Amino acid sequence: MKRCFYHLARLALALVFVYAGAVKMQDVVAFSGHVAAYQVLPYAMNYLVAATLPYVEFLAGVMLLLNVRVRPALLVIGAMTLVFMAALVSVLLRGLAIDCGCFDPGGGQDVTAGVALLRDIALMALVVLVWWLRVRSEE
Amino acid sequence: MFSDLKRIGLEACVLIAFGVLVGLSLNHQLLLDAFSGHLVSPPRQTAQESVTIALPMPALIDEVQQVTASGGLIVDARSPDQFAAGHIDGAVSLPLVEIDTVLPDFVSGVDKNRTLVIYCSGFGCPDSFDLAVRLIESGYQDVRVFEGGYPEWRDAGLPVVGNEQ
Q1: At what angle do helices B28-35 and A28-37 cross, to 10 degrees?
Q2: Any alpha helices (H) in chain A, and if so which ranges?
Q3: Nearest residue of A to residue B8, measured between CA atoms
Q4: Which one, out of A8, A20, A37, B141, has a CA that is 20 to 30 A from the CA of A122?
Q5: pLDDT of B26-55, one tens digit each?
Q6: Which of B11, B24, B152 shows the shortest C-beta gap to A72?
Q7: Sheet harboring B73-76: ordered strands across?
Q8: Kind and range of the H or E element at B85?
Q9: Does the beta-carbon distance from B151 to A63 stay under 8 Å?
Q10: % of chain B with per-residue pLDDT over 90
């Protein structure tokens, strides 16, 4: 039963990151616009983040999906989620009205920073849960 | 336990490094352009044209403010509807979709030596670049593209005008 729960949580988390990475890879330029809207990085750095972040998200998601190197992948996903949360908190504190740019950069209105932050908290909880179930299953 | 964590951390770093390398290699041309400061939205004209045409320079948000303070003109390349909904304070509308009908009036009313800054809906929107190329072809000497466009200007809290506020 616990085993089944672990796989469900792992797959859910994996699919979120595979999808997030895959859609952003399709339109790196548009995604860099979303990164720029956060107004935390200098001009060209937005492109650097947009050109690399989706691939790390995708790769970590695939590792999780395939059930290989699960804990390193969880560490990467957890670290990225923490960075996203920090960026969203800074957006809320500065009162910027921007789209979060978390998923499809070419699509219409994405969610606001507040909703995105709640979503990231849920993702973080999922990361901790998968890690914990994984450790338990090995004991 | 500790060596276990060390191994996990190391593998996580390898994972990140691999992802970054793949991203860099797939997008190296875009990044070279961005870091050399020549990045404007991808041109949509044919290859032969782009060889002979002088390309517009990108302008950052601070430069846009300096240009307007020193007598330059901000030009909105978006559709009339979008312009009416909200535009940069002081900008004139020159919609790319109606360029053939609006360009003659613009050319007769605006001096060729005046600095022009073109914008549209931000990153990923090619209209400002295409319009800038048209204006350079029409003889304007100093044409720049404000890549961040209307969204960056509005989000920076700078003055905008329009009926959606």
Answers
A1: 40
A2: 2-26, 28-37, 43-66, 70-94, 113-138
A3: A72
A4: A37
A5: 999 888 877 776 555 443 333 333 344 567
A6: B11
A7: B57-59, B143-146, B116-119, B73-76, B92-93
A8: helix B80-85
A9: no
A10: 33
Q: What is the pTM of this model?
A: 0.63
Q: Helix axis angle, A113-138 relative to A70-94, nearest 10°?
A: 160
Candidates 2.40.30.170, 3.40.250.10, 3.40.1280.10, 3.30.750.24; correct CATH number of B47-161?
Answer: 3.40.250.10
**Region B109-133 average pLDDT:** 87
Helix axes A70-94, A43-66, angle to 10 degrees: 140
Find the length of chain B: 165
Mean pLDDT of B89-112: 90
Distances (CA, A) of B110 to A70, B105, B114: 62, 9, 7
Among A56, A63, A134, the strongest candidate for a mutation testing the B interface, having the largest count of B CBs within 10 A, is A56
The 10s digit of each residue's pLDDT in A82-139 is 999 999 999 999 887 787 888 877 665 567 888 999 999 999 999 999 999 998 887 7
